[in-house]
Amino acid sequence: MGEIIVEEKGKKGGKRKAKKHSTRIDMTPMVDLMCLLITFFMLTTAFSKPKVMVITMPEKDTPEDKNRPEIPKNRTLNILLTEGHKVYYYIGIADPKKPAELPQLIKTDFSKDGIRKFLLIKNKDLFTKIAEYRDNRVTGKTEVADTTADNAIKKMKKDDQKGPIVLIKADENAKYKDMVDIIDEMAICNIASYAVVDPSPTELEMLKNAPK
Amino acid sequence: MVDLFSLLLTFFMLTTSFRPQEAAPIETPSSVSEKQAPDNDIMTIFIDKDGRVFFNIDNGKDTSTHFREKLLQKMAEQYKLTFTPKELDKFSKMSSFGMPIKNLKAWINVKDPKDRDKLQEGIPTDSTDNQLAWWVRMARLTNLGAEVAIKGDADTKYTDVKKIMDLLQENKVNKFNLVTNLLREEISLKDIPK
């Protein structure tokens, strides 16, 4: 590129004019190049670093491990995940030896009024406690460091005796997203104890007969 | 305009951290978690929509550790393969991979990068020849402090992910980092149903 200097003929002092021209540099190629480089960097940059959700799985059971903690029946909340992002839940234990007493599956979904509503009702005490603690920090009533706050919340969760113990079970038609979503709900609702476990044959049977 | 451009260019050049190359497009599900993925000492297992598995591990924080190189050497010993020092060096600069180990050499030496993706058919995870298990085992021996991250596509079947999790648990990994997108979700005391 570059400027084409048109020679002016027939005029006197043309040389002087050309000198005036030469004081300006043509910026166009540089701008072009910069434009290109900016585009390149913009496209290749990873702006937000990926976030991770930490999940700790229960250790694999060994058959001789007999002293597993007893879970109170009425605190056990079973969540079953299946195809089509559907969520079923029931409270208590599905005992295969008592087919007459099998609990009824209740259908819900991942929306705001779905499983979250139910979890919040169940976990009201703990959720209120943690939410109040957080509010106090935001409004400045209590001033503590982040780590102290995290520890305090952890302790609240540990001491909780009323909230549900959630068992998350997914059948083979569930998608990975369902699993992440439900674990996410646990985090949103401040559920103290939850675990991802395999569904029992009885539960799979119940899923088959569940309301569509 | 030139001023502005040069400013922007400098900004991008200084802040840039390149998006790592990935074997397959994976769209992660979203969560409220704000914890950042660690930069170093992490092995990532990618699971795409079709259940193909890819593996990646970093070289470690310290440039002298060469975890990838050491890992490949251990794997070569396990599977009775040999890699030249040049291949080892090349491997240490590459990113995620997913193919039976016998094809790994071909993948490292590919001339045209377009052919490289064709070789990414996934690491075998079936019980007859569970190569992923060996990758994990050897990676844990190479880098003792490595954490495990699972990056699955939102549409991956849960059973595929479950298989990987079971495999990890068999290798005494009970804590996973599930890679997710951040999607903020605020609820407060008002949201508790009466």
Describe, in short, the structure shown.
The complex is a heterodimer of chains A (212) and B (194). Chain A is α/β, with parallel strands linked by helices and 212 residues long.
Largest interface, by Cβ-Cβ below 8 angstroms: which chains and how many residues each?
Answer: A-B, 52 and 57 residues
- Radius of gyration based on Cα positions of chain A: 32 Å
Beta content of chain B: 5-15%
Neighbour order of strands in the largest sheet of chain B: 1-6-5-3-4
Describe the secondary structure blueprint for this structure:
The complex is a heterodimer of chains A (212) and B (194).
Chain A: H1 14-21, H2 28-44, E1 51-56, E2 76-82, E3 86-91, E4 106-108, H3 115-122, H4 124-139, H5 146-159, E5 165-170, H6 176-188, E6 193-197, H7 201-208
Chain B: H1 2-15, E1 30-31, E2 35-36, E3 42-47, E4 53-57, H2 67-78, H3 85-92, H4 104-108, H5 113-119, H6 131-142, E5 147-152, H7 158-170, E6 175-182
Parallel strand pairs in B: 1-6, 3-5, 5-6
Antiparallel strand pairs in B: 3-4
Name some characteristics of this structure.
heterodimer; A: 212 residues; alpha/beta; Nucleotidyltransferase, domain 5; 5-stranded mixed sheet; 6 strands; 16% strand; elongated; B: 194 residues; 15% strand; globular
Describe the overall structure.
The complex is a heterodimer of chains A (212) and B (194). Chain A is of the alpha/beta class. Chain A has seven helices and six strands. Among the domains of chain A are: 14-44; 74-123 and 163-208, Nucleotidyltransferase, domain 5, CATH 3.30.420. Chain A has helices at residues 14-21, 28-44, 115-122, 124-139, 146-159, 176-188, 201-208, and strands spanning 51-56, 76-82, 86-91, 106-108, 165-170, 193-197. A five-stranded mixed sheet of chain A has the order 4-3-2-5-6, covered by helices on one side. In chain A, helix 4 (124-139) packs antiparallel against helix 5. Chain B has 194 residues and is α/β, with parallel strands linked by helices. Chain B has one domain (49-184). In chain B, strand 3 (42-47) and strand 4 form a beta hairpin. The model of chain B has no long low-confidence stretch (mean pLDDT 85). In chain B, helix 2 crosses helix 3 and helix 2 crosses helix 6. Chain B starts with a helix and ends in a 12-residue tail after the last strand. At the A-B interface, helix 2, strand 1, helix 3, helix 4 and helix 6 of A face helix 1, strand 1, strand 2, strand 5 and helix 7 of B.
